[in-house]
Design goal:
The complex is a heterodimer of chains A (1109) and B (122). With 1109 residues, chain A is α+β, with helices and mostly antiparallel strands. Helix content of chain A is 47%, strand content 25%. In chain A, the strands form 8 sheets. Chain A has a 5-stranded antiparallel sheet with strand order 2-1-5-4-3, with helices on both faces. A 5-stranded antiparallel sheet of chain A has the order 7-6-10-9-8, sandwiched between helices. Classes of the chains: A alpha+beta (1109), B alpha/beta (122). At the A-B interface, helix 24, helix 25 and helix 27 of A face helix 1 of B.
Chain lengths: 1109, 122
Amino acid sequence: MEVQLGHPAEEIKHLERCINDLIGSIAVPTVWSAREPSEIVDTLLDLLFNMLDLDLIYVRLEDTVGETPIEMFRVAQSLSLTDGAQKIGELFKRWLGADPQKWPKQVRNTVGDNDMTVVLMRLGVQGQIGVIVAGSRRADFPRQSERLVLSVAANQAAIGLQAARLLSEQRRVADERVAQRAGELSAANEALQKEAAERRRAEEALREAERESRLILDNIPGLVGLLSATGYVEVVNRQLLDYFGQTLEELREWGTNGTVHPEDLPHVAEVFTRSIESGSPYNIVQRFRRSDGLYRWFENSGFPLRDAEGRVTRWCVLLTDIDERKRAEDALRESEFESRLIVDSIPGLIAVFSPGGELEFVNRQIVEYFGRSLEELRRWGSDDTTHPEDKTRIVELFTRAVASGEPFEFESRARRSDGVYRWHQSRGFPLRGTDGHIVRWYNLIIDIDERKRAEDALAASERNLKLIIDTIPALAWSTGPDGSADFFNQHYLDYVGLTTEQASGWGWTSALHPDDSDSLAATWAGIMASEAPGEAEARLRRHDGEYRWFLFRANPLRDESGNIVKWYGTNTDIDDWKRAEAQRDRTIKELQAKQELLDLAQKSARAMAFDWYPQQEVNSWSPEQEALHGLTPGSFDGTYQSWKKTIYPPDWPVVVKAIENAREAGEVAAEFRVIWPDGSIHWLLTKGQMFFDEQGKPFRMVGFTSDVTNRKLAEEDLRRSEAFLAEAQRLSSTGSFSWRVATNGMTWSEQAYQIFELDPAVPMTPQLIMSRVHPEDIPLVNEVINRARATGDDFEYEHRLLMPGHSIKYLHVIAHGTRDQDGQLEYIGAVQDVTERRLSEEALGKLRSELAHVSRVATLGALTASVAHEVNQPLAGIITNASTCLRMLAADPPNLDGARETVRRTIRDGHRASDVITRLRALFSKKGAAPESVDLNEATREVIALSQSELQRNGIILRTELSDDLPPVTGDRIQLQQVILNLLLNAVDAMVEINDRPKQLLIRTERDEGDRVRLSVQDAGVGLDPQSVERLFDAFYTTKSGGMGIGLSVSRSIIESHHGHLWASPNDGPGATFSFSIPHASEGVRAASSIGAIRTSAFTDAEGALRKA
Amino acid sequence: MVTPPLISVVDDDESVRESLPDLLREFGFAAQAFSSAEEFLASDFISQTRCLVLDIAMPGMTGPDLQLELARRRQEIPIIFITAHADETMRPRMLELGAVECLSKPFSETALLEALNAAFRE
């Protein structure tokens, strides 16, 4: 090593620095580890550049992982080389030769304006890594130490680079591998993720499925569990858990914890294990312990669930509680055993079949009887057990029964153990379980052989008997003890044309004649009751419909005890004989009837048939004839003379004439009188015929004579009364008429014609009548006539006639409707001329009306005060309120509420005043009599209201006792109120002077006897003098000064026109009571309506007409 | 505080009892209404009453009767009679008996005021 001796301190420093640098450069590689070559180079460059204070340092790395060598450099600023490393590389190439490998270690050259020494260091043993080129312009460059540093640094760099290269190589490889791996991994990752996702989906689905199955599991009404393929309990449903009262963990110990009944456990375990191993389903009946500790029978069914490959994945276990069933089965078995015991003890042949008809069991008796075993007997349907003739039939019956479930019964022959066929009756019935299904058939077999044979024999003999009976030529029959027929022989059935079915019982009675049915039934009942033979006659209808008489004979048949068990009978045809008898009877009756009729007729008509032979001297008379002449029977000697004497002498010529007539005409009819021995005269009517002999001489007269005295007398009376009637009609101006409605035919009396001023010779017709009727009354008359025509009711009404001379007549018509013997309606009536009466009534009515009016007017004075008072009160209110209102409105502020109140009061008072006027007007209006229904209490209250002031002014203390159940009266309300007012005011007047006692006035209404209503006005006034009570009611009588005294008189007449009466009586105490009583509505209305309604219009019209006339 | 003078109205008619006191109050008076003389006598208002408006015809004790009774009790209250009966003899008679005035219903407010003035003048 060169030592440049300069300043030793400087040298020391330099050396120190160099050592530091060395250390530094040795230390650097530690920094380099795990660094990229370029990084290493970079650091190296910096290190060296600064350490050695270089002007240039250049590194070229040959051996790089990449293809192109790395070239890096540092250049001092002062140099003007600004070109890139490559340029420098080329520069070096120029300097150092082309091949960097051959570059010398050191060279001095000019770079730019400077000379620079460039030192080259190879990296790597042969420089295969690269080169470092360091340059400096210093002349002493490179010093030994620098060279050392460079060398060390180069070595270190080489090492580092090597390492780095290795590392990077490794890393590259590793990276490659990693990258590859990463690629693989990412692919695998993707696949994995996909798989994972699928698996998640599958898991989800599985979970869902599990949830569902869990749900199902838990809702299955059964105990369900899932075991693993090895039989490990995986899952059980809720019900199972609830049932056992154990947890899943506990249940898993089923093999040991007593869940399974210890007695069953070995078997269960064996079966279960075998199943799990074999994979085949199992079914075990075993006991399980329930949550309450009780063991119950279960059916434990397990079956495997397999996957696609058929491997068992799970076991599904279902536990069914069959405890009840098991116990029932056990019980059944028990009972079966018992019943078997019983069955074997019953002394009968019993067989038991399955529901399908297979023979399951036969009792001991059967086996012994048939001498066959159960096995052998099973072939009963095909072997010789059953008689060949019966086999098909009974097999079919049995099969049908088994199929339908209906009990069966049949008779057949079966072979006994000794080989003999005997008749048996077989009865089978099904035994049903609780569910209704047939469990088995029980069959009871009874040996009926003897009985059957007997039956057959009996049947045979019966057939014989029937033959005999049907051959007998008579109608034979039999009945039971109750009389209902059970047998008819063929003749009977053929005769009546009925079948046995139709005739049996009581059917045969349909062949009886309806008229004989009841009597025969009665007779038959009697015979049966008498229990003795009997007979009856009745008509039976033959098959062709003809009825013929038969004699029914019946005989009872008794049993050993004497009781009747049957009735036997025969019916014999007696028709011809009966007819003959009937005819004879009829003839006799007829004759008798004729005779009776004749006698009766004579008696009834009080007539006598006579038979007179004129040529005979003596004609004997019957007692009736004698009676007609008032002769005692047997006293007539039959001579002509004697007869002549009986004739009333004045009528003898009539008789002679009649006889003469008879000789000529052949007929005789005469009315004449006879004298009886007692001197009485009787009228006789004789009618008859004369018979002449061959010579034409009268030879016989036959006819009737009757006593017509009564009729004659009646005729006389009639004539007389007719005369009277006519006279009476004339006197009373009443005519009579009859009117046959259907034909409108009329008969009028003379007086009727007179009234109408029509010619009696002209037949009266409705049209003729109407020609006289006053035009205004024509509708009324038509209405009455039409109603009469329709109803046939009696009618009574009044109407006017307008005479040719324009005068008016008032007519009162009454008619009574009757029906004649043909049902034809005919009216009989009377027509009366009531004109005069009417006129006077009118006048009277008018006067009364005037009087009432005057009376009202008189009271007017007394009421003026009332009016004034009644009206003034509200008026005062109105004016005061109005004044108040104005003031209130003028106030500041205006009193609107107060004003409103005053206005309201004003309106009310105004109405009050108006009401008063209305009432008063009603009271004083001059209306005609108008009957209406009047409530007296109402009327009274109104009158009181109107008289308030009067009462007050006079200090009257008014009391009312108005009855609650007062019926209304019919009448004129106004008039009645007039009366009440009159009485009231009178009572007030009576108390005017009184001042020592209360002025009490009592008005009372009440029911009065006889359907009347009474009103009383009682005062405490001056009272009455009993003597002059009646005078009070005289018109114009008055004790009042200034009064007109008409009140009471008019009041009385008003009351009387209401069919009532008005009276006064003194009180027990002071004062008097005035009362009136009038009938109430029901009576008056009814009476009035039918007549009054019609009358009213006529009257008011009449009034008008009168005025005009 | 000045209390308005009290006027008592005695009338059995409701319209009057309703309307008159209001009008009197409008005039500036205090007013009391009674449906009968007895009611008035039984009330505490007798001594306070400065004027009496009195109906003549009433059931029980009449207006004139009340006048007599008040005189007997030495209650000197001016009386204005009112009546619904239009009777020409009534007024002179009432005045003779010592009434301030006798008015016929319906009366105007002027007539009433005049009567009241007359009553208070005394």
